[in-house]
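User: My notes are a mess, but here's the protein and nicotinamide-adenine-dinucleotide's SMILES. Can you give me a structure?
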Amino acid sequence: MIKVGVIGCGSIATHRHIPEYLNHEDVEVVAFCDIEKKRSDECASLFGGASYQHYEDLLKDETIDAVSICTPNYLHAKMSVDALNAGKHVLCEKPMATSLEEAQAMIDASNQNNKLLMIGQNQRFTEAHIEAKAAIEKGLLGKIYSFKTSFGHGGPEGWSVDGANSWFFDKERAFIGAMGDLGVHKVDLMHYLLGETFTHVSAMIETSAKVATVDDNAVLILKTKSGIIGTLSASWVYNGEEDNSTIIYGEKGILKLNTDPEYSYIFISVDGEVEKRALGKIQTNDDGGQTNTGTIDHFVSAIQGKNEISPNGAAGLASLSVIIKALQSAQKQTIEEVK
Ligand SMILES: NC(=O)c1ccc[n+]([C@@H]2O[C@H](COP(=O)([O-])OP(=O)(O)OC[C@H]3O[C@@H](n4cnc5c(N)ncnc54)[C@H](O)[C@@H]3O)[C@@H](O)[C@H]2O)c1
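Assistant: No problem, the inputs look usable. Here's the predicted complex:
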């Protein structure tokens, strides 16, 4: 049995991490930690296990093999490095850190301690995205020219355990808004689907709908080394309906992912032939945790040595780099090179 501790017992922990661990036959969740004592106490009484208020105390438990870090963004790097140094495998939520230096320190701690570091960029595990990746690799689209990808909803006040008072809106604790909450997912997805990283970014970013010190609405123009250009929207102002779609335009046709409520994978060939596949729905904030993100299964299998970790720390850093450069682009009104 793999013994797991969960640090941060808010929404992502209680909707995704904890249920998915509890569903895994090789896992025992043995400890919960939250700075708000009543939250970790409640998890411990519901699911069994110890309750801690300070993560350092949880890390002292030598029987714990792995931890999920489900706290506000500014805590990710410190908690991850401390957990890796304590000999735990780490599944850290996204965005992995608030700077590239912090992200690199996490990767270094993972390497030095020979412990796994996974980042919760879970769009890679959606069935339509897995099929799309395989189809693209087999040449379904031929040369890829362009894409549009969006992740938008009405904002985290309907999701975070602290509602409208959430850390999500506070730059000191979130460091970044919709771009870090949603945009980083789509950057990682496009890196995964296209098989290459972005080399240039230009962005416009606004805070127009929320009382917040972070962005709530962002549009990025992106370019890869091979010359694929496209747009990425990350937004907390899509009121009424979530958009989590991606469209990729290639020499041989168009691939539409999660654009249709029924068919999550649609290929339209250059001749106009349409292939529609119902490959399961993408996770939304509103599905009450009914879907499995696949993140925990992947993390556990990697600990068991059955697969390589993905997305690893390097993938997390690659997507964070794009997001940080997008912020700089918006501030300086420039096109930024992503190294
Ligand atoms: N992968 C995804 O799709 C996804 C979705 C939502 C959120 N997230 C990420 O998960 C992380 C948590 O987000 P959330 O939605 O659960 O937020 P949340 O506000 O619902 O919960 C955060 C929890 O962390 C606790 N906390 C704060 N400081 C702490 C500390 N020092 N020690 C222990 N606990 C502490 C809070 O009390 C709260 O219970 C964020 O990084 C967010 O970006 C990922």
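DSSP finds ten helices and 15 strands in the chain.
User: Great, I'll file this with my notes.
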